[in-house]
TrEMBL record:
GO molecular function: cystathionine gamma-lyase activity; pyridoxal phosphate binding
Cofactor: pyridoxal 5'-phosphate
Modified residues (N6-(pyridoxal phosphate)lysine): K195
Protein name as it appears in the record: Cystathionine gamma-lyase/cystathionine beta-lyase
SUPFAM superfamilies hit by this protein: PLP-dependent transferases
Gene Ontology biological process: cysteine biosynthetic process via cystathionine; transsulfuration
Top-level taxonomy: Bacteria, Pseudomonadati, Bacteroidota, Sphingobacteriia, Sphingobacteriales
UniProt superkingdom: Bacteria
Stated family: Belongs to the trans-sulfuration enzymes family.
InterPro entries assigned: Cys/Met-Metab_PyrdxlP-dep_enz, PyrdxlP-dep_Trfase, PyrdxlP-dep_Trfase_major, PyrdxlP-dep_Trfase_small
GO cellular component: cytoplasm
Amino acid sequence: MKFATKAIHAGQSPDPTTGAIMTPIFQTSTYTQAAPGKHKGYEYSRGTNPTRTALEDCIAALENGKFGLAFSSGMAATETALKLLKPGDEVITGNDLYGGSYRIFTKLFEPYGIKFHFIDFSNPETIREYLNEKTRMIWVETPTNPTLQIVDILAVSKIAKENNVLLAVDNTFASPYLQNPLDLGADIVMHSVTKYISGHSDVVMGALVVNDEELYKQLFFYYNACGGTPGPQDCFLALRGIKTLHVRMKAHCENGRQVAEYLRSHPKIEKVYWPGFPDHNNHDIAKTQMRDFGGMISIVFKDTSIENTFRIASSFKVFSLAESLGGVESLINHPATMTHGSIPKEVREKVGVVDNLIRLSVGIEDIEDLLEDLKQALA
């Protein structure tokens, strides 16, 4: 089954009672049993819900995985994956990382005795310098947030397997349409479903996808025991959003390319981060492991003053200044004060997240309107 067909049909079938073609919203907390222990696969909605099951099966199919789990947020999904660790374990992760991931790593899990190494993943061989008998997981983000760095998933997975280390990949920026980490050797794929998968800025949700049944059972135990699960209404909305994922991603990529090319030639811009440029770091890897280059772009202004950056960020008429990304509408974000505000200034600036950088999530509006908006805001 091809991607577009899976997006519309995977995990879903007409309701056997009514014939409804859309998965019903099973707005129930519990389920009757014929006798104690004799149920139809559903006992209590913290653990399982039919609407959520359809979503989980659909997302798993899009990632070419066997098992999916949906969570109340991307951070709930991330936290559940990290529950596989124990005090004394070590994790190797990137130095250009989403601020929420950095925060949960350093503020929540480091105090429990888990050590994180934040390294440059541009050359995967660097990982070997940090591997030891305590290494339990490698956590990769690719493309990274916000400088769109590309990590060679296949090369990292080979190193992980050689050393019996789990590889988890945050695939949020690419979406399953552009990249499938399980096919490249990852053990766990994480998504903020809030972003491209749902795609309409009306849902907060996360997901994990795996192929190994034992790993799935471990994750499901934490998922059920700790209860970071989404309600059926949000699952229904995410399922509805997925049905147009392939169509939306094509538009994001087309608009993203034209916006990136326009910005690169603009006299007020010092640097444009976009994986589609031949001189972007690891562009050749992006061409190999991604199907296109996406709609995420970051730019650095020549004027280094934060006042200039704030003025421009507040001058858009079509783009909206807001957190998040991946929705049908175009968004502008200032990472230093918004998504990456929890990262110390000296840490984020080392990897290029400077005060005069803004991140664009290019939506699917008419490209002429987007380019005109950029022109007037940068004037």
